[in-house]
Amino acid sequence: MFFKYRPKRGEEENKVLFDYRASEGSEGGKEKKVLFGLRQNFVLVFLIVIILVAFVFGFWFGKSKIVCPVCPPEEVDFSLFWETWKTLEEKYVDKEKLNVQEMIYGAISGMIKSLDDPYTVFLKPEDAKRFIEDVKGMFEGVGMEIAIKEGQLQVVAPLEGTPAQKEGIRPGDKILKVDGKPTTDITVDEAVNLIRGPKGTEVILTIYREEWKETKDIKIVRGVIDIPSLKLEIRDDNVAYLRLYHFSEKATYDFRDAAIKILGSDAQKIILDLRNNPGGYLDVAQEIAGWFLEKGQIVAIEDFGGGEEQKEVLAEGNAKLVTYPIVVLINEGSASGSEILAGALRDNRGVKLIGETSFGKGSVQELAELKGESSLKITIAKWLTPIGESITDKGLEPDIRVEMTAEDYDAGRDPQLDKAIEIIKELD
Question: Where are the transmembrane segments (predicted)?
Answer without folding.
Answer: 42-62
